[in-house]
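hi! just following up on the protien thing from before. the input was this:
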Amino acid sequence: MVEKEDLKSSQCQFESDRGHHSSYERYDMLDNVLKYVGMIAVITGAILTSLRIDPLNIFFLNLGALAYLIWAIRIREWNLVAVNGTLLAIYILGAVLTNS
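and the predicted 3d structure came back as:
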């Protein structure tokens, strides 16, 4: 049988969690923005690459890799950090070498 104090304690815990929930929603919203900005930027960069529109394609591919890199760090997905960090380094190196 549940006692009144246990019920009151769990209700207080629920109310404090609910107040804390809004910061998690903002955190999730930022993660979603980063994820979808990265997706749109990479797709745009791929389209521009296929149409041979330089150097705008490099800009969008770098933007996408950077957005995915920040998102991967925030969600602690280290394989995505490695992939997107490497892609970003390759894109930057390519941009530097072609502009030299």
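The radius of gyration is 22 Å.
The mean pLDDT is 82.
cheers
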